[in-house]
Sequence to fold (152 residues):
Amino acid sequence: MPANEETLHGATPRMLAAIEALAEALFSTDAGPPPRARIEWLSREMDDFLARAGSRSRFVFRMSLLLVSIAAPILRGRFASLRALPIEERTEALERMERSRLALPLLAVKAMLCILYYEHPDAAKEIGFDGACLLPIAPTAPVALGRAGRLA
Fold:
């Protein structure tokens, strides 16, 4: 029996809070963090993705997120979780972690969040993506059919 969409959860509330705190810092610009509604949308999308992912993928993401949440602030000299830091400090902590030997878990988390974040229509518009293919569609060669109308 398929799972009810309302009960399908791949992340705990604590994980979702960590995802939101990381995403606010990751996608901030000089104008500030993205709108709260977009961060919440990303959090729901990530929860849905993790609910449908295999147990190994879920475990790797959870451990990567946990390591980022703990190690990034420590690399900045703060002994608190990432989400406890102000957004400017979160951004700096993530930048330091990117330059450290602990960058791999951050890369894993960032890759997943970026894939989902830029699926949001407003985020895509902000980077100039209009939904159209950027390359011209190549003409296809005619297909030769045999006597019975099958591919030759």
About this structure: The CA atoms of residues 26 and 91 lie 7 Å apart. The helical segments are 13-26, 36-52, 55-75, 87-98, 103-117, 121-126.
